[in-house]
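Hey,

Quick one before I head out. I ran the complex with nicotinamide-adenine-dinucleotide overnight. Inputs first:
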Amino acid sequence: MSSAHFDLIVIGTGPSASTVAKKTRAEGKRVAVIEEREFGGTCALRGCNPKKVYVNAADLIDRVVGGRGKLVDYEQLRIDWQQLLQFKKTFTDPVIEKSEASYRKKGIETFSGTASFAAADTVRVGSQALTSERFFVGTGARPRPLGIPGESLVLHSGDFLELSEIPKRVVFIGGGYISMEFACVVARYGAHVTVLQHGDQILSSFDKDLVTQLSDYCAEHQIEIQTRSEVTAVQQRSDQSLVVNYKKADQMESIEADLVIHGAGRVPNVDDLDLQAGEVEFGEQGIKVDAFLRSVTNPRVFAAGDCADTGKPRLTPTANEEARVVVKNLFASQSMQQPDYGVIPRVAFTVPSIAAVGMSEAEARKSHDVDVHHEDTSTWGSVRKTGQRCAGYKVLIDKQTNLILGAHLLGPAAEETINLFAMAMKFGLTANDVKSTLFAFPTFASDVRKMV
Ligand SMILES: Cc1cc2nc3c(=O)[nH]c(=O)nc-3n(C[C@H](O)[C@H](O)[C@H](O)COP(=O)(O)OP(=O)(O)OC[C@H]3O[C@@H](n4cnc5c(N)ncnc54)[C@H](O)[C@@H]3O)c2cc1C
Ligand SMILES: NC(=O)c1ccc[n+]([C@@H]2O[C@H](COP(=O)([O-])OP(=O)(O)OC[C@H]3O[C@@H](n4cnc5c(N)ncnc54)[C@H](O)[C@@H]3O)[C@@H](O)[C@H]2O)c1
């Protein structure tokens, strides 16, 4: 077994790991990076970026259909799935081709294979044992094991993004981000979609009233949403078609499908790391870290992003912020830094998108004397001008301080407009401050003045 020694060994090449590896190398340290799949990580290869290409196709269809007979006319409009797949690859293939070389160019040693700890200061990859002063674990998340018969018949989100064709009947297990984003795409392609969600609301981290509005719009687009439905098994028939069994209000039901997709949550990807051998404590929510993102049991080890138990949403912006702090803390001789998350906006890139930042209505009512501004905005000029008709907002304002406690948006450009609220909330702008700001007109941003 060969060996080598480094200042820092980074496990993974997603947004958190790539920042930590490259910035630490720029400080002159000897760095190695280990990746078990293609270099580039989830966000760039199997998550945010390729997903947004697919969503853009569905969104474009929706906008053109909405504008038909008002803004445009057309004979035929459709998604060509093969073409879409090829276009997606123009974003992911260059990452696969160039990512590993980009580390090497910076003087970072790269290793391909699954990393696992052999001791508190040693990691193994293939036949090599590598020792290091520090380790960074950025191994991300993986689909939650469903633990049901027929689980191997269910495709994961990464598989979905490689499909060259979409059959007629598609069932999604779970009604969270992944299912609802992909469901909107598949439905605009023309397939019949069923979403089986075991809780009583899809997209449970978003505003209930806006989610209802979105669900009604989805129902008009061949997306059947079944709530309180827990998937219990998937079976394959001799003709290759699938049957999904689920429990709905204590009744066993079943539905036929040609394709079943997993959207039932993701868990920290730590099983292969042999964290016990590395003296790194972990639990169901991932690697236990302190406020400085250092392992609570092995001071050589830091972790961030989806694999770390930070209690924060598992998103790329949180992974990036945590990585920024890890770079400062890895070799800090004295005071270490904590992440400054501010308020974290979240967006489900459904069609149309739904977005949120800050408190939910229930949280705000529990802790504050709150003014709730809530409206269906489908009749507002900005929305009508696009031909679209699914839009709304809810903004929560503290009556005493006039501060914005939470903002919830649905409709065209919600994914962009939510960032205005995030900035206003992070820097403590009051609703009156926002109201008194001149925004360019006519824009969706200028609607914000009417919402506060
Ligand atoms: C379909 C989908 C869509 C998403 N869309 C969005 C979005 O729109 N916006 C958003 O903010 N977030 C989105 N996310 C979440 C986002 O992708 C993650 O939060 C982000 O990628 C986390 O980054 P990370 O650095 O923790 O690790 P990842 O990006 O998950 O990278 C981890 C890397 O570690 C490697 N690895 C794992 N174990 C080992 C090992 N033992 N040895 C070596 N290598 C290993 C993996 O192969 C992978 O390359 C999406 C996720 C998915 C699945
Ligand atoms: N736009 C984005 O930012 C974005 C997009 C995709 C993924 N992500 C990240 O990836 C994570 C995983 O996404 P996800 O959609 O898989 O998870 P999720 O946590 O958003 O939703 C999973 C849903 O599945 C349901 N569920 C679980 N088991 C079930 C079962 N057996 N039968 C029926 N329903 C079941 C849960 O009640 C939940 O509503 C997200 O939490 C997020 O961190 C983010």
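The radius of gyration is 24 Å.

Talk tomorrow,
K.
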